[in-house]
Amino acid sequence: MADTKGSLPPEYDVNAKWDACLDLTVRRFVYSSLGGAFAGLLFFRSPVTRWASIALGAGIGIGSAYTDCSRAFDAPSSSSANLAAPKNTTETSPVSQAADE
């Protein structure tokens, strides 16, 4: 069987996109659940509210991963290879220019 990995352009390599999305989803789910658990232990006394803060953190993690993955699958070829957030261009406003003078 021939190796087709080198012949596929990045925008058509769906397996790599799925791998990156699953990795991103698992990491964000775990990290945000741990953040919710820490916040629950720090701020709440009841076990129900602690579990609710963990669930909220997990939901935030899955939601942000879903947003980035849907952007990666729908994006044009140049930006779909990476799953980073879009870069913001910073423009200098007249207020910031006046403050610099």
From TrEMBL:
**UniProt entry tagged with the keyword Iron:** no
Spans of biased composition, class Polar residues?
A: 87-101
**UniProt membrane topology term:** Single-pass membrane protein
Keyword annotations of the record: Membrane, Mitochondrion, Mitochondrion inner membrane, Transmembrane, Transmembrane helix
Places the protein is found = Mitochondrion inner membrane
- Superkingdom of this entry's organism? Eukaryota
Which parts of the sequence are annotated with region: Disordered? 75-101
Q: Where is the composition biased (Low complexity)?
A: 75-86
Supply one GO CC term from the record.
Answer: MICOS complex
Q: Which family does it belong to?
A: Belongs to the MICOS complex subunit Mic10 family.
* Role this protein plays: Component of the MICOS complex, a large protein complex of the mitochondrial inner membrane that plays crucial roles in the maintenance of crista junctions, inner membrane architecture, and formation of contact sites to the outer membrane.
Write the protein's name.
MICOS complex subunit Mic10
User: Where does this protein come from, organism-wise?
Assistant: Arabidopsis suecica (Swedish thale-cress)
